[in-house]
Design goal:
single chain; alpha+beta; glyoxalase-related enzyme like fold; 2,3-Dihydroxybiphenyl 1,2-Dioxygenase, domain 1; 2 domains; eight-stranded mixed beta sheet; 2 helices
Length: about 120
């Protein structure tokens, strides 16, 4: 649904500590999902359904990024909306790129400096 937050992801350097914390405090379990680069993405599960993701900040490009929760907004066409965002003063940080089984993603930095993931999900 265009314009709605559709996914939240914890970006962390210590996925084991995060899984232990949220498993104990919230009751989530975690299912591994192998990414195309060979790393593991963790799906946080509630009642057998994925409710959030856990992404490990372990690449050089993540060196100056603190651990944080990151939201994804569903948009009808990531490529077109990214172009509109750039024209409106935003900055394209990553993507657009296809994530198999998920959809097409981009990370946008808006004119005030806030970051938000944009996603056009694939069925």
């Amino acid at each position: 649904m265009h314009g709605r937050i559709v996914w939240n992801e914890l970006n962390t350097r210590d996925p084991e500590a995060a899984k232990a914390f949220y498993g104990t405090v919230i009751g989530w379990t975690f299912a591994p999902k192998e990414m195309s680069d060979g790393r593991t993405y963790w799906l946080a599960m509630a009642d057998g359904e994925p409710v959030a993701g856990l992404f490990t900040l372990d690449a050089d490009q993540h060196a100056d990024i603190p651990d944080h929760w990151f939201a994804y907004l569903e948009v009808d066409d990531v490529d077109a909306r990214a172009a509109t965002a750039i024209a409106g003063g935003g900055t394209l940080r990553t993507g657009p790129e296809d994530i198999p089984g998920v959809g097409r993603l981009a990370v946008i930095r808006d004119p005030v400096g806030a970051y938000l993931g944009w996603m056009t999900p694939r069925p």
